[in-house]
Every structure is written in structure tokens, then in C-alpha cells.
Amino acid sequence: MNGSRGATHDVLVVCPPGLEQLVATELAGLGVRRTRIEKGGVACQLTSRQLYAANVFLSCSTRVLVRAATFTVRSFADLQRRLGEVDWSEWFDGMSRPRVRVTTRRSMLWHDAAVVERFESALPKGSTDGPEQLLVVMAVKDRFVVSVDSSGAALHQRGWRLDQAKAPLRESVAAGLLSACRWDPSTPLVDPMCGSGTIAIEAAIRAAGHAPGLGRDFSFQRWPTFQPGTWASVSAEIDSVVAPTGHPAIVAADRDAGAVEAARANAERAGVADRIQFVNAPISALENPEPDGGPGHLITNPPWGGRVSAGDDLRNLYATLGRVGNEHLAGWGLGILVADRDLARQVRPGLTESLQLELGGRQAWLLTGRFG
Ligand SMILES: C[S@@+](CC[C@H](N)C(=O)[O-])C[C@H]1O[C@@H](n2cnc3c(N)ncnc32)[C@H](O)[C@@H]1O
């Protein structure tokens, strides 16, 4: 397990809980056949090329961790000894500063801060103004798994979502909704409650054939084992991705003018503003952007309200979504991300639970179906 050509890395691709199967499918698209799904991640073996490609091309993941060491220890003396045996030179170039994130469960060494201290004293110091290199340490029943983060900034932080409206979705979750709805990037898409535009912008990025990690940098590029030639060939692949044909209508609408402006500014930064129609209007004004074309998808994340019971305003909003959808988008696919499945029956009864997610400590479901 090192960075040499042809060797494989023992990897955990971390993702929001509920998106694991979608990540495994995306990995299969990169030629990774054998994967094991865990809660909040997908374990697999990746070559260096696949590791680089995973960071650039996976749309639903949070970060890609490479296992650096595993051991069982029950005392700080043993921990220090095992840390002294690890060859950190594969990941630290003398400049990078280690940042250690520790979680312990049912272990003799349960004091996370004290474990962090031992790691910090064993790791190369780096330069005070050097970039951070994250290490993720998980200890369960005294078994320590030490992983080095190959991503850097979380992968859902694509760099364009600087303007935020209320309750924005992670970009990776928006990408997951598009995949789980089986939206075809050559067909239209409407998000009538777009907020900061995350769903529509992820859709436009997909329709343009852009890689989600286009233009950003990654921690693995600073590893002493980094292979510039392999990275150059992955980068060439990014450039050669052919956009799906056609320019489908993608609509980002919201009744809040500030949200629409935020969505527009985000889309401009993402380089896809020319692919999106921005509309400042309430859901009751919903229209079919391609009345003479084939069916597309309405995919949206309506307001959820409080945790207890929904008020009449929210019931009316969900019912209006169902009514105008049936009226103007007959035959279109529907995907709504909700926290209250009873409330979702106002949109349409009999929707399918396509995803079950945990978002910000709250359970959420993607319900899918068809207007008509
Ligand atoms: C949960 S937020 C959407 C967040 C969005 N997915 C994002 O990533 O930023 C819900 C949005 O629905 C909008 N909204 C609420 N009622 C609406 C209505 N009747 N018509 C249109 N938009 C509405 C709100 O202004 C808010 O921006």
C-alpha cells in the first residue's frame, strides 16, 4: 500500500449516509468493481490513478481517505511505539502541517485530545504556514485505523457555492438526488424552490459534461509519492469528457428574489449560468420550459418546517406543488427531498422512497414518482 505505480491503496470513500450505493455505482464507472458498503462510506482498493480520478469525478462523496496504518493498542506507551514505526514520509513533504481528527469508541484510550497529542508529537511538524494535511483516526474496541485524507477541502465544496440562501443542500447531496431520480442530462430539469440553486447548478454541470472536481486542488498533489504523469493523464481525461448532446432547459426558480440572485451568482462562478433560466416567481406560476419537448424532471427540496407537525402553509405549499405539476408537467418525473413523509402525500400519494438520508442530524427521504 504505497504510492508506487501499480500498487493499490486501501481506501474509504466517505459520503453522506444514504448515498453509499450511488458512490459505489460511480466507482464502478471508474473501473472499481469490488466495493464494500459501510454506513457513511464505501471501502475499496484503488490504484493511484483511480485515487486521483475518484477525487475529481465522484459527485456524491465527501472525501477519499487512504489507510496508512492499523494496530491494536491499549496504552499510550504502545500507541507511541506503533506511531514511531509508521513511515510518514509517503504523505508529508516537510511543508504540510498535520491536523489530526480522532474518534474513539469502547477503547481503553478514550481521551480523544490525549490521543491527538500523541499523534502530533509523532508526526512530522511541517512548516507553520504550510498547508494542512488531515489525518482521520478511528478507534473501536482498541483497534486503531489511521487514514490520510487525499482530498483536502471536502469534495462537496466545489468552490462555487459562496452565496447561500436558507437551508442550502450540500452539492454532493444535490448530485445524489439527480442520480437517484435517474435524470437524463439531455432532458429538461426544473427546481421551483431553488434557494441558492444547488440542484440546478449540479444539473447544469452534469449537462455541460464538467467533472465535479474541475479546477480545484487536492491534498494528494503534495504527497512525496505523487505521480505527476498519472495526474496529467487523469487531467487529460477531464478535458476530453464530451458533453451530452443538446442544451436542455434547466430552470432555477424561487419566490425569494435574494435566493434567485444567490443562485445566479453561484452559477456564474460555476461557469454554467448560461445554461440556467433564473425565475423569481412562486410555485403557483410554474410552467413547462419546453412545452413542445419530451418530459423532464422536477427535482426540489421544499421547506421542511419544524420537527413536530406541519402547519397549513406548508400543507398548501406541498399541495400546490402537486397540483401545478399535474397541470403543467404531466408525464414528467418528480423528486422531492422531504423530512415528513405524511406531508409529502399532499404532493401526490404513492411516491417511492428512493433514498433515505441523514442531513444535519435529521432524517430525510427522496420521494420519487411521476406527474400525470
Ligand atoms: C430548503 S430551501 C431550498 C434550498 C436549496 N435546495 C439550496 O440548496 O439552497 C427552500 C426554498 O423554497 C423557497 N420557497 C418557499 N415557498 C415557496 C413558494 N411558494 N414558491 C417558490 N419558492 C418557495 C424558499 O424561498 C427557499 O429558498
How far is it from the N-terminal to the C-terminal residue, by CA? Answer: 54 Å
Radius of gyration equals: 23 Å
Number of domains: 2
CATH topology of the largest domain: Rossmann fold
Helix fraction, binned, reads: 25-40%
Which ions, cofactors or small ligands are bound in this entry?
S-adenosylmethionine
Structural class by sheet pairing and helices: alpha/beta
* Largest sheet geometry: 7 strands, mixed
- So what's the overall shape? globular
Average pLDDT across residues? 94
Number of helices: 10
Instruction: Name the poorly predicted regions.
Output: 1-5
- The CATH architecture designation of the largest domain is 3-Layer(aba) Sandwich
String of helices and strands? EHEEHEHEHEEHEHHEHEEHEHEE
Give the total of beta strands: 14
Under CATH at level 1, the class of the largest domain stands as Alpha Beta
Describe the protein.
This protein is an alpha/beta fold. It folds into 2 domains: 8-149, VC0802-like, CATH 3.30.2130.30; 171-208 and 244-370, Vaccinia Virus protein VP39 (Rossmann fold), CATH 3.40.50.150. It has 10 helices and 14 strands. Strands 2-3-1-4-7-6-5 form a 7-stranded mixed β-sheet. The protein has a 7-stranded mixed β-sheet with strand order 10-9-8-11-12-14-13. The longest helix is centred in the last third of the chain and has 17 residues, at 312-328. The radius of gyration is 23 Å and the shape is globular. The chain starts with 7 loop residues before the first strand and ends with a strand. Mean pLDDT is 94; it is low at 1-5. The chain binds S-adenosylmethionine. S-adenosylmethionine is lined by residues 165-169, 192-196, 198-199, 254-256, 259, 282-283, 301-303, 317. S-adenosylmethionine binds next to α6.
